[in-house]
Amino acid sequence: TTKFDLLIETIVKDANVLHTLVDDLHIEKLILQIGSSPMPSHETTPIPIQFYQYKDSIENDIQQADLVISHAGAGTILQTLEANKPLLVVINEQLMNNHQLEIAHVMEKQGYLYFCTCATLAETLKKFVNHRFEQYEKGNPLLFGRYLNEIMTE
Amino acid sequence: MDVTFINRSRHVGQSYISSVFTTLWAFFTVIPFVYRIRPKLILINGPGTCIPIVIASLLLSILFLIRRPKIVFVESICRVQSLSLTGKILQYLPVNILVQWPQLTERYPKTQYIGRLV
């Protein structure tokens, strides 16, 4: 997993972000997977925050969520889209890994999610109000099996 | 099930110049392994660690020591606009390259898109 301290800080401390989450999106609770990042102090946040470092699987948390905010890891993106959850992908500008941008960009273009940076998090969240995303279709591994059959019998 | 570990061609962050040497080394250590297994089909993805296997199998087949296997490389779903370095290298070899975004086949005509696999 990759470190993204700034994202955790933004979610917990940025007043605009919290305001949008609570007032515009009616979020009542936050569950944060923080990995090795430090957890900022959060006594004065308007909604309860639960956090943990790691779990074997975040599948349950994704399933129970009304909104998922994550870094641009392909695994997390696919897992969340397959669960058909609204997803906000936050690009880590300090990593500046081009692939992060590529997959977030194309997924947004196809209407599956929104992406942003920590600086534009609050304003991008506003787009989620009453927004319906395109339904993501899982990939089909059977296509691969069929392809292998074809080439092996050439 | 037989599991064998092979050497990495390049570690994350390793300089490309020194990677030439580690790849060569990996290649030599992998030759007896490929000769023993004699694969008919090689499925590969991701990092350049797969390249020595490819070269070893092609070399052994050119020397008539094994039959030439089918080789299929599946490019990462993160690769939307450009091929990975491994994918770019494999274009020059008899390898089937599957990409997961159709626009890549226009830019890299040697690749194929058969649909999204993951």
What are the SSEs and their pairings?
The complex is a heterodimer of chains A (154) and B (118).
Chain A: H1 5-13, H2 15-24, E1 30-33, E2 49-52, H3 59-64, E3 68-71, H4 74-82, E4 87-90, H5 98-109, E5 114-116, H6 121-125, H7 141-152
Parallel strand pairs in A: 1-2, 3-4, 4-5
Chain B: H1 16-37, E1 41-45, H2 51-62, E2 70-74, H3 85-90, E3 96-98, H4 103-107, E4 111-112
Parallel strand pairs in B: 1-2, 2-3, 3-4
Helix pairs in contact in B: 1-2
Keywords (chain B): Endoplasmic reticulum, Membrane, Transmembrane, Transmembrane helix
GO molecular function, one term (chain B): N-acetylglucosaminyldiphosphodolichol N-acetylglucosaminyltransferase activity
Transmembrane segments (chain B): 16-35, 41-66
Low-confidence stretches of chain A: none
Number of domains of chain B: 1
Mean pLDDT of chain B: 92
- What is the CATH architecture assignment of chain A? 3-Layer(aba) Sandwich
Helix content of chain B: 25-40%
User: How large is the radius of gyration of chain A?
Assistant: 17 Å
Distance between the termini of chain A: 41 Å
Let me know the CATH homologous superfamily of chain A.
Glycogen Phosphorylase B
Shape of chain B: globular
Question: How many structurally independent domains of chain A?
Answer: 1
Uncertain ranges of chain B? none
Order of the strands making up the biggest sheet of chain A: 3-4-5
What integer is the average pLDDT of chain A? 92
Count of individual helical segments of chain A:
7
Indicate the CATH class of chain A. Alpha Beta
